[in-house]
Amino acid sequence: MANNQQKVFQQVLTIVMVLFAFMFFYPVIFVLLNAFKPEARITLDPMGLPSSLYLDNFARAWSVMEFPKVFMNTLVVTVFGLGGIILTSSMAAYMLARTDSKPSWIIYGYFVLSLVIPFQIIMVPVAVLAADLNLMSIPGIIPMYWGLGCPTAIFMFHGFVKGVPRELEESAAIDGAGQFYIFFNIVFPLLKTIIATIAVIDALWIWNDFLLPLIVVKEGTIQLAQMRFNGQFLKEYGPMTASLTLSALPIVLFYLGLQKYIIKGIAAGAVKG
Asked: Minimal CB count within 10 Å: which of 53, 69, 190, 243?
């Protein structure tokens, strides 16, 4: 009797999970279907299957958005923003984890505390600071991502670094290795799991970010260029969905390539130390 009840419960749970999965996947289905349909067809039957592969939406999205230009801008911001976050955060977390002192824990606590502060609260001061420092440009927004992304990365690196055996560093120090050599040649390679995890999380964030580029650079990224199809009196759903498909493809491929590290890295960083 108990086995039958358990089987029924598992079947019901499976059905519920499938429904939830469909709910989350529904926007993706909607975008993909309408990217290959003309505007009139989208209006009449938004969830219907396309009768043919209508590619004019992609051609218009490519030209109106100036896709090669905004793609390169977004790629540059993502690559250098992500690289800066990983480099500075790993070094900071390493020193904080290896320095057992009260100031070290105060600094670490400051980074952890900043995780609970929503970006919307500091949005106006960030915009004013960016204007004062002449950071209202594509190159200027990169160090801003370093500052905004470091708290989470330091928190994750800190727990992972504490799980790296100190004996490895002590042996290298006895052989005459300096602090930078020990970090970049011994410790940093051992952080590849958590590095991949942070890379996936922050790459998704930076690539898809809309609010910070909106208040800082005003134009030049993929997410801002997509707003050209969303006018006050006219919305071009066909090119809009085509632009979403084009912009999502690179970051989805990046995510699929590194997704196996996400849970592994988060779990390891949370448990170690």
From this structure: 53
Cα 81 to Cα 41, 85, 140, 160, 194: the distances in Å are: 40, 6, 10, 22, 17
> By percentage, how much of the chain surpasses pLDDT 90?
26
Greater model confidence, 106 or 3:
106
Please give the mean pLDDT across all residues of the chain.
Answer: 86
Distance in angstroms (rounded) separating the CA atoms of residues 125 and 138? 19
Print the SS3 string covering the chain: CHHHHHHHHHHHHHHHHHHHHHHHHHHHHHHHHHHCCCHHHHHHCCCCCCCCCCCHHHHHHHHHCCHHHHHHHHHHHHHHHHHHHHHHHHHHHHHHHHCCCHHHHHHHHHHHHHHHCCHHHHHHHHHHHHHHCCCCCHHHHHHHHHHHHHHHHHHHHHHHHCCCCHHHHHHHHHCCCCHHHHHHHHHHHHHHHHHHHHHHHHHHHHHHCCHHHHHHCCCCCHHHHHHHHECCCCECHHHHHHHHHHHHHHHHHHHHHHCHHHHHHHHHHHHCC
How many angstroms separate the CA atoms of 76 and 138, rounded? 8
At 203 the pLDDT is 92
The pLDDT of residue 157:
92
pLDDT tens digits, 117-128 = 888 888 888 889
Q: Are 158 and 108 in contact (CB under 8 A)?
A: yes
